[in-house]
Amino acid sequence: MNAALARFVSSRLFWPIVMLLVLFLINVVAFPGFFTITVRDGNLYGSLIDILRNGAPTLIIAVGMTLVIATRGIDLSVGAVCAISGAVACSILLGASDPAHPGTVAVAVLTAIAVGLVCGLWNGFLVSVFGIQPIIATLILMTAGRGIAMLITEGQILTVNSPPFKVLGAGFWFGIPVAVYLGVFVFVIAAVLTRRTALGMLIESVGINPEASRQAGVRARVLLFAVYTFCALCAAVAGLILTANTMAADANNTGLFIELDAILAVVIGGTSLAGGRYSLTGTLIGALVIQTLVTTVYTVGIPPIATMVFKAAVVTVVCLLQSPTTTEAFGSFRKRLALRSGKGVAAA
Amino acid sequence: MTEPTRPPAPADHPEPVVEMTDISISFPGVKALDAVSFRMFPGEVHSLMGENGAGKSTLIKALTGVYPIDTGTILLGGTSVQFHTTAQAQDAGISTVYQEVNLLPNLSVAENIMLGREPRRFGGIDVRRMKGQAAEVLAGLGLDVDPGALLGSHSLAIQQLIAIARAINVDARVLILDEPTSSLDADEVAELFRIIRALKESGVAILFVSHFLDQVYEIADRLTVLRNGRLVGEYLTPDLLRIDLVQKMIGKEIATLEDLEQRVREDAAAGDATVFLRARGLGRKGAVAPLDLTVHEGEVIGFAGLLGSGRTEIARLLGGVDRADSGELTVRGEAHRLRTPRQALSARIAYSSENRRTEGIVDELTVRDNIILALQSDRGWLRPIPKKRQQELAESYIQALNIRPANPDALVRNLSGGNQQKVLLARWLAVAPRLLILDEPTRGIDIGAKAEIQKLVVSLAENGMSVVYISAELEEVLRLSHRVVVMRDREMVADLPNDDLTVDSLLALIAEGDQTELPGHESGERA
Fold first, then answer.
1. Is the pLDDT of residue B283 over 90?
2. A279 domain residue, yes or no
3. Which of A26, B57, B227, B255 counts the most CB atoms within 10 A of its CB?
4. A134 three-class SS
């Protein structure tokens, strides 16, 4: 039992989980009904459900971002891709004679995802074929993407009225929000694709030592294409959820700063920005931490103008806890504890 | 453990400058050092001897503050110290030059030498004075290097000497040289030894770690032998016969490498093997002049030459790591283009780079992942090697190559250099190549592992695999090769059967070339 506890304490997921629990605790103290889940019209409601539903877009993008970061890359363009995907879907719905027809919605959704795919191929092309540094390569689409979305919406905020489309963002299936299903779906797809195949190991290998991987015959170029494309697909799906939730495509504001939340979720989850080993579970917890933080702001009653500063403070604490210095100090503390309580633990 | 007897301290410096007592360090799953004691006297060269994983590097890192010690004490000049960073150790007068060059190739030579203690002026760096001081240090070492040039533009050997210049530049009481000579040629080694002797005269205590026994016996006054993380003993160099030293290091009778030579000879007599690879006019501008090469099945070809002679460059062309810009190549009679390592691997040619750390191992992955990496990428990501098969592969290679620790889940980062090399070999063997190109597979690793790798090469060739063997150690090349290709100044100067070659005749070829051996080559050039 003690050994299992020691392993948990030393695992990379320890601090993110502690952080999440602390945030839960703060929320319960400030708002005793935090854990309460009520059933209305057969659907589940409550703060936890809200966190899961509102956190889904961030989680979905963070999953894609995790794989990109594992290859030593980064994708700054995800927020812009969200905006493009929402704009494409809404403009198709607006142009259709019957926006509420399921077939029209399917066309809109699939087209938006296809456009996301093209965005990802573009990023992958710049990074893997031209060898442009990922931060620069994706900065291009980050800037241009909102402009493209603006062209698609012709500078307007496109408001649509399509109940089947709205389901993506605000609907329920079997009592659980559809967005949560989508989040789980993307997470499971990524986990199965990378951990049930050799993809994850190859991605990590390229992230740790690209030249050694190349010499071992790893097709780094194809892998880079794949991760940037997957990341953009994730962004397109997230963009659809965000747009469907408000039923409006806003080129300027859909998915604004979501790239930063996604990167934070990955980092909080313990995946290093230097590439290499990654943890999708860590990213999941990281995304929940970020979304719980947003909720905490409301329950604790922090004024909206202080929200950003509060968020930054919490993120700072998490990063400090995970820093090598803290890890080392904590490690030697544990060692001393173990020595005091008998040498057996130290040997194990 | 009984305390081994210690030889007396030197007469003129009776007090040790470094005294490490009962040092123990554990890593997850490994006891790297077990109650090891070690001392150094001023004005003495002390060699730390032991196989890979014996604990040499760990002991050095304990002294220099890289690793915290679990138990034991370190006295420096009589006072107890415990360093938490290398900077603290350096400030206390302990300077280290590590096995692999640890400098910044994108900075100038002067910046590298003076890094962290640049002369200041108006809050900025006084570039002119920095260059001047660096030039003085270089001149003091008799090195003709432009301090303003980028470090990366120099060869590995020069970089190594610059690393030493950097270490000497600090007022060091203790200078640690970890495998400083592994990439130096004979003249450079002599130069280094001149510097070491001068420093010794001035009272510096020098820790010299090398796998070259000749060099150890030439320069070291005192030896400390480690084995499997334990202290074997401390000896004065003149009192310990070489054969005894080697036995203390590996703890068993040495497998005689002469047997290998005999096996190679007998095998060569068989002859008339089929051609595996034939290259015509293969070359790359700025790397290696066009040359012809034939590799037979089951043949070991040694490439000899100095650093930068083209021996590595031609191997990289064969391995698809660099692209040839001239010539053609057939593998088993079929024309092949080896434009990427992947293409070479699919032609069943594997190249094991000389840069183990930067181009070989993937250090944050496990031993198992490193072993299966090439095989897995050949199968493609959609067809993962089943977990059970991965485990079997890893375990069988760990056993066959005697990889320590014998744990497939250990991170390769935590292995010693020799064991990393074995993991790399296992990766290439796992793809069952028909031609294995080994570039300096024994550099910076101990005698035991060297012998194991050489034995492996011979038995692989006996089973029909072709091997290209590149090494700066000519004895190895001569011992293993059926044929020797000599490179000089980016050209092939000889391609000879290994009948009556000796180290001396090979040295003569490397130094002078011998045109009479290659009339075709010469006339080809004139045409």
1. yes
2. yes
3. B57
4. helix
Q: Do B365 and A201 touch (CB under 8 A)?
A: yes
User: Does A221 lie at the interface with B, CB-CB under 8 angstroms?
Assistant: no
Chain A residues close to B380, C-beta within 8 Å: 198
C-alpha–C-alpha distance, residues A206 and A215, integer Å: 11
Q: Is A219 on the interface with B (CB under 8 A)?
A: yes
Structure tokens at A337: 């504890």
> What pLDDT digit, counting tens, does each position of A320-341 carry?
877 778 777 776 666 666 555 5
Q: What angle do CA A277, A282, A286 make, to 5 degrees?
A: 130
d(CA B25, CA B230): 11
Partner B contacted by A42 (CB < 8 A): no
Chain A interface test: which of B346, B365, B411, B428 (most A C-beta within 10 Å): B365
pLDDT of residue B525: 38
CB hemisphere CA count around B187 (13 angstroms): 6
A17 lies in a domain?
no
pLDDT tens-digit map of A221-231: 999 999 999 99
Tell me the residue length of chain B.
Answer: 527
- For chains A and B, CB pairs below 8 A equal 82
Give the mutation candidate from B34, B366, B373, B375 for the A interface (greatest A CB count, under 10 A). Answer: B373
Cβ neighbourhood burial of B383 (10 Å; 0-12, 13-18, 19+): exposed
- How many domains are there within chain A? 1
Radius of gyration of chain A (CA): 21
User: Average per-residue pLDDT in chain B?
Assistant: 85
- Which one is predicted more confidently, B261 or B254? B261
Look at residue A345 in the predicted model and tell me its pLDDT.
39
- The continuous run of DSSP H or E covering B398 comes out as helix B387-400
pLDDT tens digits, one per residue of B153-163: 887 777 877 88
* Within-domain flag for A98: yes
pLDDT value at residue A1: 55
| Domain boundaries along the sequence of chain B | 258-348+433-526, 361-432
Handedness of CA A36, A39, A44, A47 (dihedral sign): negative
Q: Is the pLDDT of residue A348 over 60?
A: no
Instruction: Domain B258-348+433-526: give its CATH code.
Output: 3.40.50.300
Instruction: Specify the higher pLDDT residue, B242 or B366.
Output: B366
Mutate to test the interface with B, among A196, A208, A215 (most CBs of B within 10 A): A215
Identity of the residue in B359, B365, B378 whose CB atom sits nearest the CB atom of A217:
B378
Reported as type and span, the H/E element at residue B226 is: strand B222-227
3-class secondary structure, B302: strand
- Nearest-Cα residue of chain A relative to residue B69: A332
* A201:B345 CB<8 A: no
Angle between helices A258-268 and A47-70 (to 10 degrees): 80
ipTM: 0.85
**Within an 8 Å CB–CB cutoff, is residue B384 touching chain A?**
yes
d(CA A43, CA A171): 10
CB B26 to CB A277 under 8 A? no
Q: Out of B381, B385, B427, whose CB is closest to A216?
A: B427
Q: How far is CA A72 from CA A46, A129, A228, B102, B121, in A?
A: 38, 16, 12, 22, 38
Q: Is residue A38 part of a domain?
A: no
Q: Across B263-325, where does the E strand assignment appear?
A: 275-284, 288-296, 300-304
- The model's pTM: 0.75
A198 touches chain B (CB under 8 A): yes
**Tens digits of residue pLDDT in A79-97:** 999 999 999 999 999 998 8
Interface check for A208 against chain B (CB to CB < 8 A): the answer is: yes
| Full domain range(s) for residue A199 | 49-289
